[in-house]
Amino acid sequence: MKKAIYPGSFDPVTLGHIDVIERASKLFDHLIIGVLCNSAKTPLFSVEERVKMLREVTKHLPNVEVKSFGGLTVDFARECGANGLVRGLRAVTDFEYELQIAQLNRVIAPEIDTVFLTTNLKYAYLSSSSVKEVAAYGGDISSFVTPCVEEEVHKKLK
Ligand code: PNS
Asked: What does the pLDDT look like over 108-124, one tens digit per residue?
């Protein structure tokens, strides 16, 4: 059984993330989305809220599970019994940072392989931070997130 994790902050989940999740769920038998709870960044949403939104937007994908984790991503992968680690690449600028993390993870957990999926060009510009910024200034985020996430972002920023 091919099992992978897709770790991230998902604060909040965007259409770009969902695109990566849908494609990764076809490549692996089981995909576990890992929502990081010990991020250095101060998130807008609590880990429970991020997990809830991810469960909602992935409910059409039967082989996708959502969990939260703390500590090292590779330890989470090991706990899940996964040997694949999925990350999305939007642009060359992501690559340097992602390659560094992937190489580091390879040294500490050689049995886990990082798989990069290039983001659909439609979402190449999209990030959770830009969604929050646009929403904070009253902009329309309906092209970036699902309606349920849009509602949660507006509720949170009220
Ligand atoms: O969505 P993000 O914020 O780009 O995700 C980054 C994430 C969660 C993949 C990365 O920060 C991470 O793996 N953090 C957990 C700590 C860890 O494993 N560090 C070692 C690699 S730097």
From this structure: 999 999 999 999 999 99
